[in-house]
Amino acid sequence: MNAVPIWLIGLLLVVVLPALVVAAQVGLRRVWPVLREGDHNEVAGFIIAVVGVIYAVLLGFVVIVSWENFAEAEDVVGQEASALRTMYRDSVAFPPPVREQIHADVRDYAAVAVEDEWPAMAQGEPGSPATARVLDETSEHLATLVTTTQDELLYKGIEADRFNDLVAARSARLDFVDQGVPAVLWVALIVGAAVTIGFTMIFGLRSALLHTIMTGSLTALIGVLLVVALALDHPFAGDVSVEPAPLERVLVDFGRPPA
User: Fold this and answer.
1) Are the C-beta atoms of residues 11 and 18 closer than 8 Å to each other?
2) Please, what is the Cα angle at 56 between 50 and 62, to 5 degrees?
3) Which residues of 219-239 are buried (b: 16+ CB within 10 A; e: fewer)?
4) Burial of residue 163 (number of CB atoms within 10 Å: 0-12, 13-18, 19+)
5) Counting CB atoms within 10 angstroms of each CB, which of 41, 62, 66, 226 has the fewest?
6) How far apart are CA 95 and CA 51, in angstroms?
7) pLDDT at 46 over 70
8) DSSP assignments along 145-165, one per residue
9) pLDDT digits (tens, 9 = 90+) for 62-120
């Protein structure tokens, strides 16, 4: 679904779908004129109230969960950039050759994450080999780092902790690639929308215009919320996605590695 532009999904769910529902309602009123009398409104009104509440809770739950996952993914990217910044600045305790190596590792990681890993995640791939390779090289550099003073030994431990934070943040970020609303919930949302809109269509009203406005508005509202849920479903894919802005700022602040 993420391969479909969000504007097209919005057009289908917010414009085309309500138009089709309204057209079907007009045809239904012509085929069964008795619906206009509203003799069944007492029963239909009770059922639509129950169905509407259940569906509203389900739809609201999906939208909220999707937004929370999206916001959490953004937070994880921020933590990743923060770990890189700390590694870069804490390297001041080491001699220039060691310091420059750590700086290069930080820049290499940020660059490969932005340029290779984000496009890979947008395609549904759990990371890129290039990023994993930079992590392995950084780990090796830190493990073989020679310390000659107590302060350097202390800061080596600090750098190792920040590196572990970086690995943990990346792992958490990649977990969001495959996360999304389960298929069974999407089935429930589609069936619930059909039932809710269907009961609105058979609700008896003498005024065809008022009935059309009510049904069309409800369908459009459901369509809007479904578009929101679809747009936020996978945080790193689609037109609405988490951007690598925190990592890009690391490159801006500390310099992009040479090509």
Assistant:
1) no
2) 140
3) bbebbebbbbbbbbbbbbbbe
4) buried
5) 41
6) 69
7) no
8) ----SHHHHHHHHHHHHHHHH
9) 999 999 999 999 999 999 999 999 999 999 889 999 999 999 999 999 999 999 999 99
CA atoms within 13 A on the CB side of 182: 5
The pTM for the full model equals 0.84
pLDDT for the residue 110: 95
Helices (H), 1-40: 6-11, 17-31
* Dihedral angle computed from the Cα positions of residues 51, 52, 58 and 61, in that order, rounded to the nearest 10 degrees: -160
- Tell me the angle at which helices 41-90 and 208-232 cross, rounded to the nearest 10 degrees: 30
Single out the residue of 132, 71, 83, 45 nearest to residue 250, CA to CA: 83
